[in-house]
Amino acid sequence: MPLYLFSSPAAAKLATGPHASLHRRRQFLFRVPHRPSRRAPLLTSAAERPAGRTMATADTGASTVTDSRLRATGVKQALISLSDKTDLANLGNGLQRLGFSIISTGGTASSLEASGVNVTKVEEITQFPEMLDGRVKTLHPSIHGGILARRDQEHHLKALKEHGIGTFDVVVVNLYPFYDKVTSGAISFEDGIENIDIGGPTLIRAAAKNHKDVLVVVDHKDYPALLEYLEGKQDDPDFRRTLAWKAFQHVASYDSAISEWLWKQSNKDSFPPSFTVPLTMKSTLRYGENPHQKAAFYGDRSLSLVNAGGIATAIQHHGKEMSYNNYLDADAAWNCVSEFESPTCVVVKHTNPCGVASRHDILEAYRLAVRADPVSAFGGIVAFNTTVDEDLAREIREFRRPTDGETRMFYEIVVAPGYTAEGLEVLKGKSKTLRILEAKRRRSGKGTLLSLRQVGGGWLAQEPDDVTPEDVAFTNVSERAPDARELSDAKFACLCVKHVKSNAIVIAKNSCMLGMGSGQPNRLESLRIAFRKAGEEAKGAALASDAFFPFAWNDAVEEACQRGVAVIAEPGGSIRDQDAVECCNKYGVALVFTGVRHFRH
C-alpha cells in the first residue's frame, strides 16, 4: 500500500479524487528521529488531535498522530534563527526559564543546545527538511501560519487547530551579513547573491505585521528588554510597535544595500531611477542651526561610502559634544584640507576657509593660515592633513592672537588624521571644551559617490566636485604668460576657491591664502573683500575666481589688475572674455582660463 502524508482533510480528499495520481507524485514523507531530551512538550491526547491529521505507518498500518506538527495554540513558542549569535545563550536560557518552547534552525539550534537549551528544530515542525543548500528552511505554512494568525480572530485559530499549527509568541531573527560580505573586499557576483537572505526577512515582516500578538526582535541589544517585558506580563502596545518599527526598518536597510549593490553590478549610470539612503542615528544634538531647532546626526550606511572617510566617521578624543554647526564646519575644513598633498593647515569659519597654507614645516603653515584672517580664525575650526605631534599641539595651545599678541587663540575644533600620544595630551590641556577629532582622509568620489541636497519636496543629486588642478589645463590667453611660480600660485588659489561660497575670490602667494571674498551677490564685492584682507601682499599674487567675470573694464578684472596681481585664473566662457584678455594685456597681467567652474552655493 502506498505511503502518504496528508497535510489536511482537503489534501486527503484530493488524494482520492480524479487528480489522485498527480497529487500522489507530489507527496513526501520525512521521518524525524525522536529526541525527547531536546523536544518541547507535544500534544498526545486524543482530544487535542485535530481531525484529518493522521497517517498510516509503514510497519503496522495503524493510524497515529505526527506529534511534532501538533503544537497547541496555547503553548508559548519562540522561533529563533540567527546569523549573528551574540548573547544567544542568555536569550535562549531566559526564554526557557519563562516557559517558552524554543523552535530553531541549523546552526542556531546547535548553539542553543550547546548552551543547555531544549530545542525543537524547524524541520520537526514542518516535517520537511532544510533543502536547496539552506535556501528553504522556514518558508512553510506551519511556521508562517503560527506567526501571522491573529489571536482575536476565531476563524484564524480554528484554521490553526484544523491543520495542527501552533502559534508563535516571539520571533527573534537577524539576517545573513550581506552588507559585511560585499564590503569586505573582492566578492564574486554569485557569492553576493548567495548572501541575500530570503527566509529571514519573510519571518521578520510576518512577525512585525502581526506585532499585536508576536514580539519580533532583530537586534541583540533588545534581548534584555524583551525578557523584562515578558517577565512583567504587561501588554504595552508602544513596546510592541517600537520592535515592529525596528524590524521593518532593519529589513528596509538590508534591502537598500542589496538594491544599491545590484544596480552597480549591472549599470554604469551614477543616477538610478530610484534609490534609498539608509541612515542610522548616531546621536541626538543639543539643537540645530539655532537653539529653537531640534536636530540629530545620522550616519549613512550606503555601500558607496564604506571606507570613504570624512567627518561622519571621525573619532572624538576630547571636548564638548559636537553640535549641528560643528559638524558642518568640521566637514568643510576636512574636505578642504584633504585636497592638499603637501603638509597643510586650513582654518574655517562658518564653512568658509578663511586661512590656508602649505609648508614643509607644518608649524609655519599653521601660523600663516591663522594670520591670513586672525579675526575670523578666532573661534573657528583648524584642520591639518598631517599627524599632530607634541610640538604642533603646543603651538596650537600657546599661539597668541596676531591682532594683539596676547590673547591665546580659541578654537571650537581641531581635526587631523592622527595624533601622537604626547600631542594629544598637550592639546587636551588647551581647553576642556576643545573638540579633538581624528578623521580618515576622504576618498575621491569620482563615479561612485553622490552629493545630495534637500529642496522643498525633493532632493538634488550630483557627483562631487572632485576636480583638482592636476585635472585642469591652465591655458594662457594673455600676451604675458605666467612664470612657474605664478602658475603654482594660481593652482593653489584655484584649489582654495572651490571650497569658498560663491561668489568666490581667493588671492594667494607662495602656497598661502592672503585673502578671500565669499558669498556676495556680485563678484566685484567679493573681490574687494579679498583685497581688503590681503592688503599690500596682494601685489605679485595670484587671483582665482570660481566663475568667469561678466565684466572687465571698470569692473573686477581691471580693479584686480590695478591692485597689482600678477596672474588671474578663471574658467572663461563669458561673451566678454575678450574684454578680460585685453584688460590684462593693458596692465601686463597674465590671464589663464581653466575651463572649470567651481560654484558652491
From TrEMBL:
<comment type="pathway">
    <text>Purine metabolism; IMP biosynthesis via de novo pathway; 5-formamido-1-(5-phospho-D-ribosyl)imidazole-4-carboxamide from 5-amino-1-(5-phospho-D-ribosyl)imidazole-4-carboxamide (10-formyl THF route): step 1/1.</text>
</comment>
<dbReference type="GO" id="GO:0006189">
    <property type="term" value="P:'de novo' IMP biosynthetic process"/>
</dbReference>
<feature type="domain" description="MGS-like">
    <location>
        <begin position="68"/>
        <end position="218"/>
    </location>
</feature>
<dbReference type="InterPro" id="IPR016193">
    <property type="entry name" value="Cytidine_deaminase-like"/>
</dbReference>
<comment type="similarity">
    <text>Belongs to the PurH family.</text>
</comment>
<dbReference type="Pfam" id="PF01808">
    <property type="entry name" value="AICARFT_IMPCHas"/>
</dbReference>
<keyword id="KW-0808">Transferase</keyword>
<dbReference type="GO" id="GO:0004643">
    <property type="term" value="F:phosphoribosylaminoimidazolecarboxamide formyltransferase activity"/>
</dbReference>
<dbReference type="GO" id="GO:0005829">
    <property type="term" value="C:cytosol"/>
</dbReference>
<dbReference type="InterPro" id="IPR002695">
    <property type="entry name" value="PurH-like"/>
</dbReference>
<keyword id="KW-0658">Purine biosynthesis</keyword>
<keyword id="KW-0378">Hydrolase</keyword>
<keyword id="KW-0511">Multifunctional enzyme</keyword>
<dbReference type="Pfam" id="PF02142">
    <property type="entry name" value="MGS"/>
</dbReference>
<comment type="pathway">
    <text>Purine metabolism; IMP biosynthesis via de novo pathway; IMP from 5-formamido-1-(5-phospho-D-ribosyl)imidazole-4-carboxamide: step 1/1.</text>
</comment>
<dbReference type="InterPro" id="IPR036914">
    <property type="entry name" value="MGS-like_dom_sf"/>
</dbReference>
<dbReference type="InterPro" id="IPR011607">
    <property type="entry name" value="MGS-like_dom"/>
</dbReference>
<dbReference type="GO" id="GO:0003937">
    <property type="term" value="F:IMP cyclohydrolase activity"/>
</dbReference>
<dbReference type="InterPro" id="IPR024051">
    <property type="entry name" value="AICAR_Tfase_dup_dom_sf"/>
</dbReference>
<protein>
    <submittedName>
        <fullName>AICARFT/IMPCHase bienzyme family protein</fullName>
    </submittedName>
</protein>
